[in-house]
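Archive record:
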Amino acid sequence: MTRVIPIVPAPGDAASAAGEGEMVSLYQKQKKIYPRSVKGGFARWRWLMVWLTQALFYGLPWLSMNGRQAVLFDLSARRFYIGQLVLYPQDFIYLTGLLVLSAYGLFFFTTVGGRLWCGYACPQTVYTEIFLWIERRFEGERGARMKLDAGPWTLNKLWRKGGKHVVWVLLGLWTGFTFVGYFTPIHSLWTEAFTLDFGPWEWFWVNFYGLATYGNAGFLREQVCQYMCPYARFQSAMFDKDTLIVSYDSARGDPRGTRARGTDLASAGLGQCIDCSLCVQVCPAGIDIREGLQYECIACTACIDACDGVMDKMHYPRGLIRYATQNALARQEPHPDLTKPPKPALDLPHLLRPRVLIYGAVLIVIAVAFVTSLSLRRTLKVDVVRDRATLARIVEDGLVENVFRLQLMNATEQPQRYHVAVQGIPGAVLSGSPEVSLLPAEARWVTLAVRVPPEQAAALKPGAHPIRFEVSPLGAAGAAVSEKSSFVIPR
């Protein structure tokens, strides 16, 4: 986007009479980043996380348990299956607890180790890594990709670019298909895929999620982290000078400069950085870590692997770029090699900090409460709704009757039988059978009438009186569920 900005010249300037203006761009053109591949200990950790996260994401919907999909969020039936758990919309509190637990976990690990989530497990990082691997298979390494983009369109360029995009699109669609498979049984979805017999919402989400994966990992890449993700902006609130971050040791590396192997650094007046710029070339965000901590850095540690490889070739000690705290760099503490045994001892002053202890304590309390609540949850849920059409009426033999609708939800995968009783008003009885049978994971609405004898009704004041419905399992272990309601005595 551009605008013509009028120039205000000095009096008598010829530009004033001509009414000329200057063309100024309001947005800087985004320079394409060509990350170079890198090998090393941290790269192996990153790829291990890629394999683990994607095996979990793509494989989990295909697992079966108790004759159904092991993880399925069945929105149409309003039931959510997670392993042995059967959850209903009334269990939404557990989702809230899980989100709070995730948030405090993010705060805790960020305070201790920086952007570990961004560098190793964030879907944007993981899929960018996969898409870059595909790109390298078709177009080659960094120099070859830059040369291919700068060259004219030829048959070679066409098939390399086209092949890459075809694989990207297929991977994006498979990702969208898997995502939908968490909400629609994936085996039936797989059958529908061969006949393209998806429903309208399935079509929308497969294509939407597939397009999002294709666009974010294939084109936007670092721009998602820099401009769309809020975490990059508020991460500084969780950092302090004892947070482990990817750091360049300027005291050891500067002054930078090229040199021959074996050069005496003291006589040459040089630091250990040979200014090879490999740390910049491997960075997926295109930043120079030697300029200090920057919000664009996702802590992928590619620069650490690249620099350690150069240090090995120059016969310098590793760790010019490393995980370190700002306080450790200021004190010039010796660098432990984090990629090789023996493992460094725990830095207790680094870990035992007030904010770490507070986040850790809150995280433990929430985790214990979440697990305890989930393990003690009732397998029967009951909702009571009064019949709004008829609040109270007089039936045969002068009995006062109120009609209620009970929703019974069986949160187990075995058939259950329940006995319903009413308490709170002497002589109150249920009209009809007090026993209800439910199929595995079934939710049913049951209409029940509560009747009070005329002599008991006469002893009560007109208006609402509290009662309780007691629902007890028959022939199975489990606690009874009590739900409050009110019985109306007409005037």
